[in-house]
Amino acid sequence: MSDTLVSMKGLDFSYRTPDGSIRVLDQVDLNVERGEFTCILGRSGCGKSTLLRILAGFEQHSGGSLLIDGTPLTAPSMERIMIFQEFDQLLPWKSVRENLLFPLRKRFPDESAAQLHERSEQALALTGLSQAAGLYPRQLSGGMKQRAALARALALEPKLLLMDEPFASLDLKTRDSLQQLLLRLWRESAATMLFVTHDIQEAILLSDRLYIMDEREQGRLTCYENPLRRPRSHSMEGFKSFALRIARAFD
Amino acid sequence: MGLDRRRRMSIIITRAGWILSTLLVWQLIVSTRRVSPLILPSLQAIGSSFWSSLITGDLVRYAGVSISLVLAGGLIGTLLAAVLAVAAYQSKFLAGGIDTLTAVAHPLPGIALLPLVILWSGTGITSVLVIIVHSVIWPMTINLRSGFSSVHQRYIDVGRNYGFSRLGIMLHIMIPASWSYMLAGLRIAWARSWRAVISAEMIFGVMGASGGLGWYIFQRRVFMDTAGMYAGIAVLIMIGLVIEDHLFRLLEHKTISRWGGRQ
User: Fold this and answer.
1) A93 Cβ under 8 Å from any chain B Cβ
2) How far is B95 from chain A (nearest CA, A)?
3) How many domains does chain A have?
4) Is the peptide bond before B176 cis (omega within 30 degrees of 0)?
5) All domains in chain B, ordered by first residue
6) Residues contacting residue B113 through CB under 8 Å, at least 6 positions apart
7) What residues does A6 pair with on adjacent strands?
8) Model's pTM, two decimal places?
């Protein structure tokens, strides 16, 4: 048995508009291996967010097959948690801790309040948010909000984490530290990562396998194995030449 | 917190200052003895009427009747408004009907419906409740609906991601996310239903065990007890100030101010 978590073959998707439909994805193939870090690199508007929304179960594809762990994807599920680019994804009427506990109660209905509390505190500690647990989202900085979204997602122990440019609105320094945090959390958890970005450096730094999405061909994906050893840095040997190769393919 | 308390204190001080100066002017006019005490009774007369009704428990009982009517009608009206708003949110077809119904019924003052309501259900508590429900249901429906449509798709997606059903998303996402609109709706609903219940009581008189504040004021006029009338009006004012200045502000402080801005 192969260890493929996501197997997508010939996937089609069109948006319906009043003047007919616009085909965004046409015959898209994608495999995501369990436990791997996969990045999809593409320009804005190329359909990469749509691909994630289909994988989350928010949108219905019109053709092709999409299997998660060998079974067809039907509805949204806590096994596939989405993290958005926008900072406003925590529920503003709940404190940070309550934002974690709220889905945890649904995810682990048989556990006691103390056990759930333990889970949330642990996730907050891992993301460096223990001090902020009682704060409301509006009191957090953008970076802290994305950390909290990460903590909330990982606490749910999803099989697959779907990340839609989660760091794209952050300043460089915060982005660097969140990239490192994400890599550490990935190593320590069993989650499979599917990370969408338009930033070549970010994709190379994070991914085991990297797909470039071509908007001229309705989302066709080309796969590149990332040859770099971990831990990686922008100054390591081979980073520049691989980045150059990807940049050429990207243009 | 400190800032908010200071702001609240300054509201109370401003209010008290203006009310006291008005009373002072009142008393000055009364002391010229040029105005009949049937029109402007002295503050002492109003005060003693207020006090005696207070210790006999009359005023409290009458005010209690009015407030509980508004609460009961407000609750029914809010629940019905929630049903309408949810129905309109779920179905485009129903939304059209509910739109039309709201557009027709909202501008109608509750009092204008009185003759009709008397015809349907007599001059009892039911009729007053119908009037209150009418004053509450339309502004609440309108506000709930604009609240629902203002909820960002992302929050709905988050709810879907957690595997909530449509009902679950309604309860856990839509309603808290549109709370600021609901609160605004409640303010309007309170204002309209409070005015409606006082007017209706004046017309219906005693319902069940006791009349309400409206009836109290009306009765004083019948007995030419002007001081008692003013005492009743003073109670109306106090209730209005406490609810509008303090209760709603407190609710807002405990919720929206903490969550920050529009949701």
Assistant:
1) yes
2) 21
3) 1
4) no
5) 52-259 (1.10.3720.10)
6) B130, B131, B134
7) A32, A68
8) 0.85
